[in-house]
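As noted in the main text, all predictions were made from sequence alone. Below is one such record, for DUF2520 domain-containing protein.
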Amino acid sequence: MSVGIVSAGRVGTALGEALDRVGHVVFGCSAVSDASLARARTRLPDAAVLPAAEVAARSELLVLAVPDAELPALVQGLARTGAVSPGTLVLHTSGANGVGVLAPLAGNGVVTMAVHPAMTFSGKPEDTERLSSACFGITAADEIGFAIAQSLVLEIGGEPVGVREDARTLYHAALAHGSNHLVTVVNDALDALRTALADTELTGQQPVESRPGGVAERVLAPLLSAALDNVLRSGPAALTGPVARGDADMVDAHLQALTALDDDLAAGYRALSLRSAQRTGATHIVDRLRRQS
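Prediction:
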């Protein structure tokens, strides 16, 4: 198919590149920022950079890959100008939105689909490779739309997963909680670990730098990998450490050490310890943490 991308952000570029690799023709994309223009030139070199309305008018498959908050206004604008031709396949990549946001474009044979890759994007070429191992949350207005969306996902090597229209926000919240908050937790842990591993006369270690691949990262990486593997295999039973052992005094000691370093970091630890204690049924830890808050 003739594919148009609005816009050449991290997701749009990766999806456009993936579709191009399986034989579709990405003829054009919209790009405004310097970063988007650079991505379009390097990763979609055969695609012309065009206004969004022109991309829409010439597309057999129109991919709307803009941020969640920008999608409704974009759709309204395309509908108002009549830019989308009858019979066009239109999909958006927003996780939080279902197919209802595309309703202004529906009709005249236009097929609308919500196709969200459950993946994090860095803006680098490896994003495209990751799509072949990703699941895609699909919502469509009817069986035809779902079948088309499913086929497109399978074509680029992904796994299609149906998501109800009324469950899109919960679906998106779950993904954000699992991935985005993981990044925050790991960064907090690295900050504390760098301080703990700081230079001392006894160890003779050099100051621990805040950089990718540093000592703190090397210490934490295998532990994180094992923990993630364990929880995906074993669920709540994978939890270890003082909360799982019911050691409330050690949790208190951790909180004292973290508070001395950073009150906000300690508050995050307290909140997650409380949630972990609720999952393990450690009611004495739950009660103690609630009294402290």
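Residues 168-196 form the longest helix (29 residues). The CA atoms of residues 227 and 238 lie 7 Å apart. These features were considered when defining construct boundaries for the mutagenesis experiments described in Section 2.9.
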